[in-house]
Every structure is written in structure tokens, then in C-alpha cells.
Amino acid sequence: MTINNYQFQGKRAIVRVDFNVPLDEQGQITDDTRIRGALPTLQKILNDGGSLILMSHMGKPKGKVSEKLSLKQIIPNLSQALGRPVQFAPDCAKAQAQAAALKAGEVLLLENLRFYPEEEGKPVGIDKADPAYEDAKKAMKSAQKEFAKTLASYADCYVNDAFGTAHRKHASTAVIADYFDADNKMLGLLMEKEVQAVENVLNNIRRPFTAIMGGSKVSTKIGIITNLLNKVDNLIICGGMTYTFVKAMGGQIGTSICEDEQLQLALDILDQAKQKGVQLVLASDTVVADRFAEDANTQVCPSNAIPDNWMGMDIGPDSCVLFAKYIESAKTILWNGPAGVFEMDKFAKGSEAIAHSIAKATSNGAYSLIGGGDSVACINKLHLADQVSYISTGGGALLEAIEGKILPGVAAING
Ligand code: AMP
Fold first, then answer.
1. Is 114 a known active-site residue?
2. CA within 20 to 30 Å of 61's CA: 138, 204, 304, 363, which one?
3. Given ligand 1 and candidates 341, 347, 354, which is best to mutate, with the most ligand atoms within 8 Å of its CB?
4. Is the pLDDT of residue 195 over 90?
5. How far apart are CA 295 and CA 344, in angstroms?
């Protein structure tokens, strides 16, 4: 079933949203992007004459009630965003009566699902090495099913719009779907967009396809790099990862960040790229610093000739031009991870140049997908969000999807 085909009139919809918003010390929301992201789905259901039971996690309460992580705190913002009152169920597993009393157009928010360990389905308070662990795990799995069944009993249909947790097989993101038949479960509008965005870079590729992978470590990106080598025409590798590659090829990297245990892996990736006809592009020059600090002394040098006691902090000006060539001629672009220590303005120029090149390519008709907190922050800082094709809301979920893994939250609905 799809959300646009479903008749919500007179129906109660239980919707898994991602309301895991950041709060300050006073419990005020500091960034409501996630609430706004869910609005198209929520408004569609309400406008069609349905009622809403909203469920989400917030933070990591580890199966215990924590006032600081109560979803009650978001009610003023949510109510304002929806333009109507929001009722609250202080115990998400005991909301039957409130759910049953909902009338068309009404909204009920359930308390943080993760106050129950059943949501994540992992046994708490028992070590994996404990001989009783396997039994505890089995018991928890069946408790998780019961918990999911209770949540399902509140509603006529289930909508999953929480892409950020789609890579988790939790009660509310996947297990609950077993209690609805195929005609009464569907992805929300945000999820549909995310799934389509991944589809555009993995399967509906318009060529040339340039992926830009940055960030600090090769080891955390290896799954993605390996999958992308089967898809892309050009793979730009930047950020701290660069120096593992440069060292593996025999270059001098000074005190730059490097994973010595991944040198062979870097050589294997270079070899695979060659065999698959992928152009693997590394920074030709680097901005180096004598300290890991904003006010460090800096200079630009070739990436493979970094002086002793200097460290690579950003790509240099020649690399910006080199990368622009591959980005601006592309028809499909994926960007994940910064080109340097972009948190310090002095070393953000490379990431900013990449962002501008992506915006330019997009205005020339390319499809561009930006994922991962740092790259998204960079695009937002430069006010380029409306000049790229899609900014993913999912960190880990997006990365797993690009690795080619099936997301449990999507599989539970699409089969
Ligand atoms: P990741 O979490 O692996 O995506 O990496 C993001 C982090 O990589 C950011 O916090 C950057 O500051 C960091 N980073 C990028 N380039 C470098 C570099 N040349 N040296 C050290 N850290 C870097």
C-alpha cells in the first residue's frame, strides 16, 4: 500500500516518526528539522479525515523512564506545527483507551518508546558473556513481539516515516508491521523520498556518477566505498582518509591522521578501482598546520610531501579545482563526509568548495544527494540547501542503504 492510495477517512493511523530532536538544558527544542520533516505525512492523514497516534524514541534512556527524555517536552512545538492540540499518553504501552477515543483530526502522542527495553529488544542488565544471556535474549524477543502487538492494537493502519531508525529492527520500526496486512501498512512521504533518493544513486544512475567520500577514517566507510566502486565513474576520496591512501602509496604525510592497520586495504581499494575502470581521485595538494588548532600556522604543500611535524587539515586550492572538474561534469552526485576539519573555519574551505561545485552541477541538471551530519551542516551553513536535489535526514540508515544493505524498516513494509 502507498500513503497516497490509502483511504484515511475515519481511520486511526499509528505513525512511527523520528522526533528525536535536540533539546537544551531547559528542555527547549534547539532544532525542529525532524518535526518539520514529518509534517507532510501527518498533515496528509489529518486532511484526509484520519486521526494520528504518533510514536517515537528520544535519546538513549536504555529501557528506563527518564524525565529528561520525555516526549512531553515537544508538545508545544508539535502542536504549533500541526495547528491543533496534541494529547499525550504518558505510558506508551497503556494507551488503548486514549487511542480508542480518538476522533477524526485528533492527535495522540505516545511517550518515548525506549522507556521500554522491548522497543529495542535487547536484554538489559545482563552481560553477553553470562551463560543466561541467550535465554534472556529469547525472552526479550518474545516480549518485543507482545509490545509491538500492543502498539499495533491502537490503530487501523501503520505508517513508518522514521528513516533515521529504518536500519534498526525495533518494535516500532519493523516488528509492528507483522500485525498489519499489506493493505494497511505503508511508508510515509519522508521515507518514500529517502528510499527514492537512495534508488537514484544506486540504481537509476545518470552518468557520469561522481561520489565524494570524506571524513576521518577509511575503516568506517569501507562498506560504502566497496559498494560504490561497483556504481560510480569517479570516486573522490578526501578528508582524513586521504593520508592512509597517500602513505600506502609511499608518500610523506607528516603527523596527519592515518590508520596504519588499513594501509593494505587502501592499496586494495586503489587496485579494485583500477580493475573496475573507476577514476579514484585524491587531493593533489593539502593545507597543512603545525597544530590541530584554528590559530595554527598553515601552508599548502603536495599531499604526498607533507613536512615532518605538520598535519593535513584540508584539501588545497589545486584540489578544489581538480574536484570541481569531476563534480561539475557529473549527472549523479553523492556526497558524504567533509574534506577537512571543517569545524574550524580556516579548514572548511575545501568542504565549502565541494558544496558550491555540487550546487553548480545541480543547477546544470545533475541529481545530487547529500548525506551525513557534517556534509549537511556544511550545505546548510552556506545556505545551499535549496540548490541541491536532496538532503537525507538519515545518518546511519543512509550509509547502510548505500552500502547496499536492506533496511529492516523498509523491508517490513515492502517485503
Ligand atoms: P566521519 O565521522 O568519519 O564522517 O568524519 C568526520 C570528521 O572528520 C569531522 O569531524 C572532521 O573534522 C574530520 N576530519 C576531516 N578531515 C580531517 C583531517 N584532515 N584530519 C583530521 N580530521 C579530519
1. no
2. 138
3. 341
4. yes
5. 9
Cβ of 343 less than 6 Å from ligand 1: yes
Q: Is the same domain home to 238 and 141?
A: no
Residue 55 lies in a domain: yes
Question: Does residue 237's CB lie within 6 angstroms of at least one atom of ligand 1?
Answer: no
C-alpha distances in Å from residue 192, one per residue of 2, 52, 82, 88, 347 = 9, 19, 21, 27, 36
Does 332 reside within a domain?
yes
Distance CA 42, CA 38 (A): 6
In a domain, 345, yes or no: yes
Q: Do 187 and 255 lie in a common domain?
A: no
pTM metric for this prediction: 0.91
- Cα→Cα distances 361→171, 175, 209, 352, Å: 41, 41, 12, 14
Strand residue runs (E) in 62-101: 87-89
Residues 306 and 185 in one domain: no
**Is the pLDDT reported for residue 179 higher than 90?**
yes
Computed over every residue of the chain, the mean pLDDT equals 96
- Give the residue-averaged pLDDT of 175-182: 98
Task: Mark whether 97 and 162 lie in a shared domain.
Answer: yes
Which is nearest to 146 in space by CA: 171, 168, 165, 166? 171
- Residue 340 in contact with ligand 1 by CB distance below 6 A: yes
Provide the residue range defining the domain that includes 238: 205-402
Closest ligand 1 atom to Cα of 214:
4
Instruction: Please say if 10 is a catalytic residue.
Output: no
Written as nine digits, the cell of 186 is 505503508
Distance from residue 339's CA to the centre of ligand 1 (Å): 8
How many domains does one find in the chain?
Answer: 2
Q: Are 192 and 217 in contact (CB under 8 A)?
A: no
Query: How many angstroms does the Cα of residue 232 sit away from the middle of ligand 1?
Result: 23
